[in-house]
Amino acid sequence: MVVALLGLGTVGKSTYNAIINKESTFFNDILIKYTLVKNTNKHRDIPDNVLTDSFDKIINDDEVETIIEMTGSSDSYYYITESLNKRKNVITASKEVISNHFSELEKLASEKGVSLLYEAAVGGGIPIVNTLNNLSSINKIYKIEGILNGTTNFILSNMHIEKNDFESSLLIAQKRGFAEADSSSDFLGLDMVRKISILSQIAYKTEIDNTKVYRFGIQGITKEIIDIVSLIGYTLKFVCYSELRGNSIYIGVEPIAFKSKELFSSVNYEYNVIRYYGNHCGVQTMVGKGAGPITANSILNDIKLLYYGYKSNYSIENNYVIIGPNKDKCRLFIKYKYKSKLENIIDADFDGIALTKKIDYDTLINNLDNISFYARIYE
Hints:
By secondary structure, the protein is α/β, with parallel strands linked by helices. It folds into 2 domains: about 1-115, Rossmann fold; about 130-290 and about 325-375, Dihydrodipicolinate Reductase, domain 2.
């Protein structure tokens, strides 16, 4: 199989090395003909005949069968659509492009008789995409929940375990390569919106508009909140979820407090966890590293699937209504501004941080202007 790599970042370099160094006999049949980078002078360890800054050169070479897109750039959508139109298989790590153009790209791949694979877009090295693709053909998957962002999970773990404040935990995450200089999309929940959108579209075979996915970020978290949550026997996590009920999908991203004995409480630092529910498969859980070089495992797995004849077969079968947040009544940890406005819902108060009675989401939304942070209690 002749392939071209687009991008030589952390994931791209790990993928390149695995193939070039023949870390498995399988890679004897994989040839990297091109590697696309912005500046060829920065990658002198790559042979000149392989290194290129010209996408046109790659896309117009009929020998190239598969494009492996790992640029993480604004050009990702262009690279993917052009490659599919040229009847080349595409493997991509772009969660943003896949989540926003899911059905469009799947349809294009089908029309051109090629395949689109995107295991690396969700869960790092965890093979959740292919798993759900397989299971959804024989199961009715009706619920997905997970910690799917290594940056925020690292920070929250650091705050709980090492008792650091948010700023110190972020700095440690950045020094260890688990957080970007600008991690706002992580804190705001945008990254997990894209990931739960992809998994939900696979599982429920319906289109999902990302703008309808509810989200409440963790940018308002403080050490004081973590201390109170821990004191009462809970661990705070940043979680995404979706659930199919009848013809509606409840889908969102928000902070959730788990009892310390719950599995999600023990998944820490850069690790991710995904739990899904189906009528035949029951409850299944997958845990693994969610970011970094291990993501190359997902790219390599997609290469192997293509090599052995995998063909995309996704189709939109349903037209479910996207509701937004889970609207079940629940208790919350909240950091409030004015207690007098919340007297009727507070069950226990810890001087600015409170544990509420069971309330519905309409009550929460109506009081958000007086709540700087909340975490739903998982029960």
